[in-house]
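Lecture 7 notes: from sequence to structure.

We start with a single chain of 305 residues. Read the sequence below before looking at the structure.
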Amino acid sequence: MMREIRDIVRQFAQRGYEPYALATLVRSQGSSYRRPGARMLVAADGHAVGSLSGGCLEEEVVARAQEVLRTGAPAWMKFDTRRRFGCHGSLEIFIEHASPCFLRRLAECYWARQSVVLATDFGREGQEPGTRFVDDGETEMPDRLLQRVVPPVQLLLIGDGPDSGALRSLGETLGWSVAQLDSATELRSAYDERTAAIVKTHNYGRDCAALRALLPLGLPYIGLLGPRRRRDQLLGDVLDSGIEVNGNVFGPAGLDLGGDSPEAIALSIVAEIQAVFAGGSCQSLRERRAPIHAVAASPYAALAF
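Now the structure, written as tokens:
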């Protein structure tokens, strides 16, 4: 979901204050390609960004969203995917007119990397329907979707190499923010908990300096390119300098996907980072007995910018 919020923000920035409709997946039962909280922004000319399904429903939602823009009245759509697509589930989508004030604040929070909570009310008596910003700690109700929106993954590439282009491309495709740094001297003193770093200067001294600068920051993921013996030597030198090494160092970086091309290496690293930040098991879905989409442990449906 990281990319769709980024695309909604960019759409608003590029096309200004023209009318938009916001379609939100508010409920799902059974099998569903997307989870509640997926959103799509639709302009009056039918141009849309974001998605609510695997591509099965978007055309109908766009048509209904254009009607919402013409009438100003919110709309409700329900799809029984068992009968139409054989997907053994159902989706409920709420469509509303998106105010410029809401979209502007969403953009401000996105660029400032601020975590926010959105409430979409879609049927509760005495409550005007629509999506708005609310305080943390709001109460969940049957006709309300509460959603915590967190910043996208920020990926730091420290050093260059043949895999850098693929790492940037894959990260940006996922909606991540990607920054290329030549060395540890370009690191800032503060990064948030949604930051990952890959150390790949291909120089022992610069890699060691990068690890010494990164480890005290407590990032959830620090990837290190190179063989295990080199990793052990680097971490030993880091420990000797008095810096604690914990389980957030992933070296050699990446999952065992096979392949040794720069693109395959980049794919394996990006997949590992995605699993770390999303809490994935890295298990083949064919072997998984539980539902594909795990139930969120937090009281709000999680969504990343």
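The chain has a mean pLDDT of 87. Keep this in mind for problem set 3.
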